[in-house]
Amino acid sequence: MAAVTTVSGLVAAGVLSGAGTAAADATPQTQGGATATIGGLKTYGTAVIHQAGGDQRVSAGLFEMSVDGGGTLQTYCVDLYNPTQRDARYQETSWSGTSLGANKDAGKIRWILQHSYPQVNDLAALARQAGAGTLSEQDAAAGTQVAIWRYSDRAKVDAADPQAEKLADYLEKSARNLGEPQASLTLDPPAVSGRSGEPLGPVTVHTNAGAVTVTPPAEAAAGGARITDKAGKAVTSAKDGTRLYFHVPEDATAGTAQLTVQASTTVPVGRAFASDSRSQTQILAGSSESTVSATATAGWAAEGAIPAVSARKDCAEGGVDITAVDKGDEPFTFELMGASHTIPAGATRTVIVPLQEDQAYDFTITGPNGFSHRFTGVLDCRTQGTITTESAQDHNQPSPATVGGAAVTDTDLAATGGSAITPLIAGAAIGLVVIGGAVLLLLRKREEPTD
């Protein structure tokens, strides 16, 4: 297997195919939680970014997202110099899968979120604490975003409004490191394997929801797989800490199955949200009751190697962690990035695939009985770049080139956070237009009749 540069997407995708299956549709493999679509800046003010090339005014404040299945999220940006894509889809993820994983001050950002707007909606009390006089919702959102950017991007940034700036200074100086919040819903591990006739698992539910609905595998009718507790009793609901098992008949042919769990809960403040389109990373500031889900897969066979594999982005190590387990009675050997790896029977190994920033990857791990698992994505772990737009105005829409939302263009999209080569492209385009005009004039002159 080799990394390639033709596949994009932030979150790894997985494919599992059973024995006798020639191909399988790609299905997203995530750590679970909420999936949402960004809608734009809803409450914001103005901030000033100080750079060597000059100051840049940008919009700064709260984004709003619509959750698949129902619910609304409010988020701040933690990825100042990357663009925000219109209608980008986001997935709840752990800090380790984003730039926060390598940021020693990520916990201070969580403190800011818990001690400012919108978690603190008594703006008069918040203003007194910050010595800010009075604060509007726009001032509070802008001041909070500015304080976050100082820790998430090490940016030299101030709020344009004096009261918002006082809030930003107060939050920055008062922040203390807090731990990463629990996921709204995950299944651990996301992949298991074993011999048919034995319980496969456990897969443990981790959630802050009071109850979780368990949906059995779609393949149950064909393979006979059921979701049970350890004693073999069917399970249709679960809670935090519940251990689930795939119960497969002893005479079942080698194959795979997938279970899904779903719940309605508020997503914990401080959870990261990453996009598969490289739209700027967000961090949760507030959540309504929202739909969250997670999936896990199982593979089984009667004998031989019986593998299960899963992948997780590891920004601290700069790559993707591939975890492989073999529950069979023979070793499982696979190729990864030109190297051969052997998992002894009954053992588990984690192999890191080192990648460069922004490098796309496409891995397929195959095994016995038609086993095939594919992972695709792009490593996007760093906050980096510069702002090149000379001026900006407040606007409430994200864009293909925005720093927390910013300047208005003639398509109602923000225009900051663009590439540094933009002026060169524009200059080249103007030059080509001039040359083209000169050529046309010359040709016309040659075609004019002489006296």
Short description:
With 451 residues, this protein is of the alpha+beta class. It contains 6 helices and 25 strands.
How would you describe this structure in keywords?
451 residues; 36% strand; five-stranded mixed β-sheet; disordered C terminus; 25 strands; disordered N terminus; single chain; 17% helix; alpha+beta; 6 helices
Q: Topology of this structure?
A:
Blueprint: E1 13-14, E2 27-28, E3 35-51, E4 54-67, E5 72-77, E6 89-93, H1 106-114, H2 123-130, H3 137-152, E7 157-159, H4 162-174, E8 185-188, E9 191-195, E10 199-207, E11 212-215, H5 220-223, E12 226-228, E13 237-238, E14 243-247, E15 255-265, E16 272-275, E17 282-287, E18 290-301, E19 307-314, E20 319-326, E21 332-336, E22 339-343, E23 348-354, E24 360-366, E25 372-378, H6 422-447
Parallel strand pairs: 9-18
Antiparallel strand pairs: 1-2, 3-4, 3-6, 3-7, 4-5, 5-17, 6-16, 8-10, 10-14, 11-13, 11-15, 12-14, 15-18, 16-17, 19-20, 20-23, 21-22, 24-25
Helix pairs in contact: 1-3, 2-4, 3-4
